[in-house]
Amino acid sequence: MLREVFYPTLINSNMVSMSINGKLEKFWITELTRPAFEDWLEHEVHPVVIIGIGSIEQHGPHLPLGMDSLAVKDIIHMVASRSNSVCVHPSWSGYSPHHMGFKGTITFSWETLMGVMMDTIGSLAYHGVKRFIIVNGHGGNTQIMNLVVQQAKREYDVMVYVPTGPVGTDLAKKQTDRSKRYWDVHSGTNETGAALGLFPELVEMWRVPEDWKPSNNINPDVKAYLDPDREDYEMVNQLFRASSQPDTDDFTSDGIYGMNSPHDANPDEFKARLEERVEFMAEFIRKWKEIPTPPAFQ
User: Which CATH class is domain 21-166+275-297?
Assistant: First the structure.
């Protein structure tokens, strides 16, 4: 009797689908049931899957080893939730051999990372997904990611793209100038601001001395090439990159690349910039869905 009276009520009260007529309530593919994914795939006119890739690598003495993957996971989920897309983070590690001089780094070979990306796209393409966005959180993955974009289009007859932007806003220009002027590309002001904005509980700022000085041993004459106000900046900046040493521990003892202090990080600035980026990508997807699938991908 107890089963007859209460069990049906319990079942009915929990009959909440994660996807109703294609409208998602959950966005991580790992959290969707198979029927919910199928409902989304059937009813969403042009379903889009967002793939995030990052890394597990040293990020100076103060940022978590999973910095890039942790950040990209937050970003792709935000974009997915605004565009009714499914997001997937197929691996925590990326291509990071240049950081192996510091303990804790885990690197895939380029072949492994490319295989993970291709297999992820290929699996979902097999089930009918035709549109993929890749969001990359680690510079070392860039060339592999770009090759995946080219190869996946041809091998699986799918559309794959890496949206970037917006680049013309005041915040975008400010952060880009900082990156150029101080080589602020790894564990410096910009990235520390991101960590403090997304997961401050994982940041140990006390490990960076208040009077921190850059530990890199780059030739001072070559450092001068970083000045974007130079008339010859277009050339000397390329000379700087052409002369860069292959591994992080070749030129820095603490793993921080730039010349500006992590203590200058501004999490509020990061959050404002994040909002610009997330909305840009979400709008990209919304507009992309309005474009019919070209014959080559059908």
Answer: alpha beta
